[in-house]
Amino acid sequence: MTNIEQQPQGTLTLQTLSMPADTNPLGDIFGGWLLSQMDIAGAILAIEIAHGRVTTVAVSSMKFLHPVPVGSLVSCYSVLRAIGNTSIRVGIEVWIKDFKTHKRLKVTEGEFVYVAIDERGTKRPVNS
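Above: the chain sequence. Below: its structure as tokens.
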């Protein structure tokens, strides 16, 4: 199955445009910028599940599948993978839409781990 036939897994959590200021020296979007968008998207889902503050504790996997050109619509899809006592594991896929060709393509996927924390930054149970 090709990327064109696939559908994103999870819920659309964050959308933005890739801008020229976010490029690497070769003119594609910098991987660190993309990783930060994924972290924001995963945190949005984790905050909803934890009913409060969370912090990122790990990126347990990350794959950059295709470069992201400037001007693409960047869409982050998040799916809950697991809930522990204090932790939440979230799978995230990033898909782009090229406004010139109108094609969609999965460009990145990863798994992020968040921990629920209280107002002092101390771990707390997810369901508290």
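The two ends are 42 Å apart (CA to CA).
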